[in-house]
Amino acid sequence: MEKNTAEIIGVEVQQSNLGSYEEARLAFDWTDEEKRFSWHETGQLNLAYEAIDRHAKSGLADKIALLYSDPEREESYTFEQMRQESNRAANMLRGLGIGKGDRVFIFMPRTPELYFTLLGIVKIGAIAGPLFEAFMETAVRDRLKDSGAVAIVTTPTLAERVPAHELPELKHVILVDASKPVEKEAAGAETDKGLLPEDSPFADFHALMHEASTEADIEWVEREDGLILHYTSGSTGKPKGVYHVHGAMVQQAYTGRIVLDLQPDDVYWCTADPGWVTGTSYGIFAPWLNGVTNVIRGGRFSPQDWYETIQRNKVTVWYSAPTAFRMLMGAGDEAVKQYDLSSLRHVLSVGEPLNPEVIRWGHRVYERRIHDTWWMTETGAQLICNYPSMDLRPGSMGKPIPGVEAAIVDDQGNILPPLRMGNLAIRTPWPSMMRKIWNNPAKYEEYVRIPGWYISGDSAYMDEDGYFWFQGRIDDVINTSGERVGPFEVESKLVEHPAVAEAGVIGKPDPVRGEVIKAFISLREGYEATDELKAEITKFVKEGLSAHAAPREIEFKDKLPKTRSGKIMRRVLKAWELKLPAGDLSTIED
Ligand code: ATP
Ligand code: MG
Predict the structure, then answer these.
(1) Mutational test site, ligand 1, from 376, 385, 585, 589, max ligand atoms within 8 Å of CB
(2) 508 three-state secondary structure
(3) 146 pocket-lining for ligand 1 (C-beta < 6 Å)
(4) Where are the transmembrane segments (predicted)?
(5) Which atom of ligand 1 approaches the CA of 278 most closely?
(6) Other C-beta atoms lying within 10 Å of the C-beta of residue 559
(7) Rounded to 5 degrees, what are φ and ψ at 64?
(8) H helices then E strands: how many in the chain?
(9) Does the structure's ipTM exceed the value 0.85?
């Protein structure tokens, strides 16, 4: 394993909410963070109240909370308007008999209605279950069934993938016309309150919202009461239903302040869909808990569209993912030059390891360092991060946030010294830690099998200066001729080669070496898949990394298998290679 900690990209933004990392760590106390919430004074707690109503009532009523656009719509909503619309959604759901603890799913494209609904669910103490709009019927059914959902808010088109007749607990299918704002002419107005005949589960969102009052009583809850149920990305196996509580807000707000570095005048854009945890913890909760203007862009990804979104909205803080940055890099420097991106102050990434090559490129073309952040659906909020006020070592996911202790431990829970690869573990608990895996207590126990530690399932090492370096999923670490090789460092070296767009690396069983390294590679435009190129790429890794980490086999693919959230699915590559069944594919891209 190569431990290259020499390359450092220095601090360009000295002023940040965190200040000195070491000092912040020493002075930190979670109870100070709790004092920032109104419930600390009143004893009345609800995340949606803290995110919206509190601001609407304390001077930010007319500040823009949501700046929405897609190719057909362009709307903005103030904190006061968000308060009113989410109250309507709360009343709509209450009117259907839905209440505290009920699971209510959302299955629709990113539109303002999605955000009103999610906040409305939280306001009544129900548990939100966001689903990514690209899910097909089996994926939708499995999640609704597993969670015992009582209602789903969806669009007429997507409702075709909701097999209501197979889901006895699902009482309501509320239909949103996603192309229309809330106050559209209510399509179902002629039927009473938008409800269709007696025994039909279908209801018209717009008619119900239209009828509903803009004032609502908030359901005051406990910190430990349910907030959201997120199914994981399915990179390593069947997705797990991760259960989070209202108390997560303490860490979501805190990391919004010190990791996203949100400041009052920021215009913040998180590109993740709320179907994934980043799209709620950091696409909804963190920005609004901090009273910041939140940009939501609907529609499809294209480099032009994204750069245009930054330029038009003067985005200052941008949170995205390696897959997107790699695609933007693929689109080239010329695409960047056509736009004015000078509003950007702080750029961040999450979801997969961020290749050093991408950071170098970003630094050159955006003149900003891309800050990697590591966390998981299960952790509810960021844990190990790069901060604006800190030197950045490309390829490292940074250091644990103040208030959190991370370590590399062996399978018995012994803490390993610096530079040794092992289980990435977090000292339990932290405010946003999941409280259970829905319907699967045995799975939960696997994460906390070593007393005092949460075992992430990721493999990493810590360098002598306390920076953490991701190596791969524990199961993906390759053992070749007695050496342990993390797939990430091989992949990162591969993408430095000009011909390589993306790479996925696996260990392939080998009678002599235990495993050999096999790389699946998609090429950049203009490169031919030849044996000469294979040899050249192998040589490139041998010389740039090490002989034992160089792939023995290379296979070119037009596309690598990815989750819908853009993560390379190495288990699918492995299954292909070994001609084994691929397992749960509910989250795979087309
Ligand atoms: P599943 O648990 O269903 O297999 P998943 O682990 O991909 O899917 P998520 O919770 O969305 O589901 O992703 C968390 C994982 O993503 C982490 O365990 C880690 O492997 C990877 N990850 C997230 N951020 C980073 C990062 N900054 N660097 C490296 N890996 C990251
Ligand atoms: Mg996982």
Answers:
(1) 376
(2) strand
(3) no
(4) none
(5) 11
(6) 11
(7) -70, 125
(8) 20, 26
(9) yes
Ligand 2 centroid distance, CA of 142 (Å): 18
Ligand nearest to the CA of 323: 1
233 lines ligand 1 (CB under 6 A): yes
Neighbouring C-beta atoms of residue 162, cutoff 10 Å: 22
State the DSSP string of 332-400: -HHHHHTS--TT--EEEE-SS---HHHHHHHHHHTSSPEEEEE--GGG-S--EE--TTS-B-TT--BEE
Note the Cα 358 to chain centre separation in Å.
19
Task: Report the separation in Å between the CA atom of 473 and the middle of ligand 2, taken as the mean of its atom positions.
Answer: 9
Query: Distances from the Cα of 93 to the Cαs of 144, 173, 221, in angstroms?
Result: 17, 11, 17
Task: Decide: 489 in ligand 1 pocket, CB within 6 A.
Answer: no
pLDDT tens figures, 113-156: 999 999 999 999 999 999 999 999 999 999 999 999 999 999 99
Which atom in ligand 1 lies closest to the alpha carbon of residue 238?
Answer: 3
> Looking at residue 434, what is its pLDDT?
98
Measured distance CA(433)–CA(456) in Å, rounded? 12
pTM of the model: 0.94
